Amino acid sequence: MACALAILGVVLVALFVDISPRVEGDFFFAEDDPQMIASRAVAERFPGGEQILLRVEDLADDTAAYREHIAALTDELLAIDGITGGFSITTDSPARSPLFRRLLLNPDSAATNIVLSADETDPQLLIPRIEAVINAHRSPELAIVMSGVPVIVELIRRSLYRDLIVFSLAAVAVFGLISGLLYRDAAIVVGTLATCFVSVSLTLIVGQLMGSGIGLLTANLVTIVFVLTLSHVVFLTANWTRAAAATPDRGAALQQGIRDTLEGSFWSMATTLLGFLSLLIATARPLRELGMAGAVGSLCALLVTYSAYPTFLGYWAKMPTASAGGGAVSPMRGRRGLVVGTVTAVVVLLGVNVFRVDTDPGLLTYFAEGTELRDGLELVDRDGGSSTLDIIVSDPDGGRIDAPAVFARMEVLQESLDADSAAGVVVSPTVLIGHARTLPLAGFLPVPTLLDLASSPQLGGVGLGFVTAERDQGHYLLRMRESHEEPSRQAVMDRMSGYARDAGLEPTLVAGLYDLQAQLGRLIQSSLRIGIGGLLVLFLGVALVVSRSFLTTLKMWLCLAAIPTVVLGTFGLFGIAVDIVTSPAANVALAIGADSMIHLVVRVRRLTGTTVAPWTTAVAQISRPVLIATGIISAGFGIFVLSSFPPTQRFGLAVILGTAAAATMALVVLPRLVATEATPEPSAAS
User: Fold this and answer.
1) pTM for the full model?
2) Cα–Cα distance, 672 to 539 (Å, whole number)
């Protein structure tokens, strides 16, 4: 039945669930997110559409042929459905206009830009159309690189989708292979895979019915739910093996195995569930989606494990021999102080580096170094910047920006922004004036008239994107350099706003991709605090219920807190970025660590009164499933490290680190932190 359900689930997912990740057009923020308020305000006041930039380099050093290529390429690009306008060196003269000189020319004289304006067409539809045109023109004589928010969003979506399919399936295959090598029982391996597939399919189907598809952070949901289910399966298998070794009665062994595992599984699920639910208070939709999907997955993992997997153990799995149940065990040897002291020193060292974790990585870190894509984006970034920043300014006294005194201050601001090395291309109303003066006799006209001309159809209405109709606000559009070393994006934006104030202007609004990435960095920090902090707080209550001892609860909590400390501290120590895709990995590792400790302490409580050394015996009984789970999970997530998408690589690495730390804390540190073998007396229910 479980195998049939697994097959049915896979079929239903293939037919009815859209597993293509949805990445929002404004760099992972949905339209209803509070972070989008400033960006929407800029788009409403200064319409201009999304910008897509193509850097076209002449590799043949043939100017005449190059211009012909640019002209043909520009014409075909402008004919694409979804492109509302654009310009290049063959449509507008950069020699005459300071505006087009800034936008079209590069420090490398062999390369120029084509700038396109796009409407709200989904990048998943628009970018392939542009790529088709580019591929038709790309040749040994012409190198073409594309950038812009829609481009980057689509490239990230493709990377997530590829990794979702390729590496999730590869990880599942590794899970099955390692399970086969460890258990050497076809029924257990098939049962494990079938149970995990049913759990994953049910989670995806429920998510689809709830209207929550695959998003930015739920792209790794398949593997996360697989691991959550696998943890229950491994512990249930271990307890059944021990029970079956003591009795030839399959039914009795199965019931005993379930009794020994269910309590620990329930509290492990509860901890993970509440941890995911804590993300629902986050303001960014991707975090809320992860919280809801993780909560559904946590419930499905428990329900499916105990409804589907026992059949395989009760009817088809090989009955173990008496030795499989674990014979007499030796008490834990000494060196308690040395072991605990060494681990504590390592955790403290890594803990110091937690504060160095980079949660505001550059845009380029989403693409692997040395690849053609990354090299091309770096060229665009070096030429004139790759992230847009919008600064809206006004006169503090309420004057019009086209008044001579106010406009003079705007020219001062333009000079300050041009001089800052973090800013590449800067376009503002002062540049528009130079553009308008290219018209015959326009040099004799006053600034208000020139701004009217720049906003007229005669000059393509370009001024509408930089001045309001009331002339009370001006728009400075900057392309920021992602490769430029800075303390933080917020520090850069504060510096840019400071230039405005120094010039006697008021920066009334700051927005754009650069600002959204800064907000994303703050949200990553917030999600780490909410997710990890919330889980640790919730674990206090769960641990107290499970251990029934305040002192043991405190020690469990300290061991659990060490897991994210190891993960984040290692990332901080080696300068590895924690991006929005990587950030949930610490929560996954924390959930795995909680499982191990809860099952261990439940086993200790059940052994109390039946053995003189309950902790020693419990460690001996629980170590095999913990090590099996650690090995399977580490091998599976190790596949992610081979991805060409850096965030997926970092996600896999973080889970491996956390899983190894969790096993160490559960099997080595926690038992030695317990100074004596004394534990609370078991209740009658135990």
Assistant:
1) 0.83
2) 20
Give CA–CA dist 300/304, Å, rounded.
6
Q: Are 222 and 161 in contact (CB under 8 A)?
A: no
CA–CA gap between residue 50 and residue 460 (Å, rounded): 16
Distance separating alpha carbons of residues 433 and 559, to the nearest angstrom: 64
91 CB-near residues (< 8 Å, 6+ apart): 74
Secondary structure of residue 626 in the 3-state scheme: helix
Task: Return d(Cα 50, Cα 246) in angstroms, integer.
Answer: 69
DSSP 444: G
391 and 510 Cβ atoms separated by less than 8 Å:
yes
- Give residue 435's identity as a one-letter amino acid code: H
Q: Mapping DSSP to helix (H, G, I), strand (E, B) and coil, where does residue 94 land?
A: coil
Which position has the token pair 């507008």?
Answer: 92
CA distances to 366, 430, 521, 614, 665 from 330, rounded to whole Å, are: 50, 82, 50, 11, 20
Instruction: For residue 83, report the phi and psi dihedrals to the nearest 5 degrees.
Output: -95, 120
Measure Cα distances from 431 to 99, 405, 498, 537 in Å. Answer: 6, 17, 20, 55
Domains (ranges, CATH) in the chain? 34-147 (3.30.70.1320), 154-357+518-673 (1.20.1640.10), 371-511 (no CATH)
Residue with tokens 């090995």: 631
pLDDT in tens, 546-590: 988 889 999 999 999 999 999 999 999 999 989 888 888 887 788
Main-chain dihedrals φ then ψ at residue 53, nearest 5 degrees: -115, 130
How does 17-30 read in b/e, with b if 16+ C-beta sit within 10 Å?
bebbbbbbbbbbbb
Q: With contact defined as beta carbons under 8 Å apart, do 543 and 670 qualify?
A: no
Distance CA 616, CA 229 (A): 27
As a whole number of angstroms, the distance between CA 441 and CA 430 comes to 18
Helix count (H) and strand count (E) of the chain?
23, 8
- In terms of Cβ atoms closer than 10 Å to its own Cβ (0-12, 13-18, 19+), residue 55 is buried
- List Cα–Cα distances, 142 to 56, 136, 313, in angstroms: 7, 11, 64
The tokens describing 479, both together, are: 């392309």
> Taking the chain (686 residues) in consecutive chunks of 10 residues, what is each chunk's mean pLDDT?
73 73 65 73 80 93 93 95 92 82 91 92 93 93 90 86 82 84 88 92 89 74 87 92 89 93 92 82 76 91 94 88 51 62 91 91 87 87 92 94 92 96 93 80 78 73 79 93 87 96 95 88 83 83 89 91 94 91 82 86 88 87 89 84 87 90 91 63 44
The C-alpha atoms of residue 439 and residue 378 are separated, in whole angstroms, by: 36
d(CA 635, CA 2): 25
- Distance between CA atoms of residues 269 and 595, nearest Å: 8
> Angle CA(148)–CA(58)–CA(644) in degrees, nearest 5?
45
The SS3 call for residue 137 is: helix
